[in-house]
Amino acid sequence: MDCQSDQIEMLLAHMNIEDIINAAETLFPSIESGASSRESSSRYEMEDEENTDSRNTEDSSCGNRALGRVRYGPVTELLSFVNEICSSQIDTGLSEEMGVLLNKTDMAILDGHYRTGLEVFLFPWKLTYRSYSSGHVPKGSFGAVHLAQDGETRKRMACKLIPLEHFKPADVEIQAMFRHENIAELYGALLWQQTVYLFMEAGEGGSVMEKLESCGPMRDFEIIWVTKQVLRGLEYLHSKDIIHHDIKPSNIVLMSTKAVLVDFGLAVQMTEEVYTPQDMRGTEIYMSPEVVLCRGHDTKADIYSLGTSIIHMQTGFPPWVRRYPPSAYPSYLYIIHKQAPPLEDIAEDCSPAMRTFLERSLARSPQQRSSAAELMRDEAMNPPREDQPRCWSLDSGMVDVSHGLLRQLSQLPDTLQDSILYSHEDSAAFRKTGSLYIDLGSLAGYYNIVQGPPGSDYR
Questions:
Q1: Measured between alpha carbons, how far is 30 from 215 in angstroms, rounded to an integer?
Q2: What letter would DSSP give residue 389?
Q3: Catalytic residue selected from 150, 171, 220, 246
Q4: Residue 305: pLDDT over 60
Q5: For this structure, is 246 an active site residue?
Q6: Count of domains forming the chain
Q7: For the region Disordered, what residue ranges are annotated (predicted)?
Q8: What letter would DSSP give residue 197?
Q9: What's the domain range around 140?
């Protein structure tokens, strides 16, 4: 202020009154011009108010748009949503996600949103198995399936990503409408950026195929355990006249206490005694002769596919391929038609009971083939108690105080658990008395130990 006063005094000392008046008129316009200025100012203020109101309206509409289109709903709403996106009845080009979730307990929607990276996190699902005979650590991947974890509830799920152009209602209908312990439970479906996200029950131990690729042929009691789980699922499906159409090792997923069937994209529910398809359904190497002919089949086709899958579990190879290498035989349809069933591919050390079981499940004629309910009562599925090895899961091993090693490992960092749990020194003991589920995969029951989101092993 002192500086400004000095400047004014210097200005007055060097200017006469006329100059001061001229300067004042320049600095302070007349009343008329002042009124005009006030009118202009009022006009600008009114325009600013209008612009502010307009912006508030836009902000309000943006706020409304911020509410997402993901909601909880029953199975009927989920199926309606799936049919709408498949029939292009809704705009699939929206920038925000939309969908219906069935699981209210474990999946937390925030303001109508269930966004990856915010409400749910996706991680590449790399499943690791240990080979007891070597230090090699093979890895497998589900491909389009990711490990998903809800950001609030910490629920771990499997999330299958399907491009919209390849998605069809059959991918979710059977899993949504029919619930069973040995069928992977569907939690919900979302559509975002032309991709359908299917959330379902997670298989901590990976698929039987990954187990075979990593560890080789499975032992008898492992095969019996997996087969009984699959038969329970098939018995339920077949009681509903549903044909899975794609029973194979990669569609049998292992969990800490059970095995479940996945991938129902080819499944159909029969309305007549025989289903006559318009196209060939299934994976060629596991197909039954009647499916290859495309003249009609029923639920017994799944039983045949289970039999071929058991041969794969016994030997480490699908049927036919050792006698007819894929390099020389690009297609096995003719071979299946002429030579089925592949009884010559049964493992040489197969027990008599299991061989009889396979003969019943691989009978060429569907009429002579046993049903899932009949096979559940077969001698091979119910061996004498003295022939059944002691099987305990990783979870129960953690509770049992007699297993000090596992109990101590549970307190170690994940990286130490990863390197010690299957060390070569302990592998022999674990192989003799160890858990079926430990041998089926290192991740079986593992998620019940690890707290928080997956670490660097999944990235």
A1: 97
A2: P
A3: 246
A4: yes
A5: yes
A6: 2
A7: 32-63, 364-389
A8: E
A9: 69-204
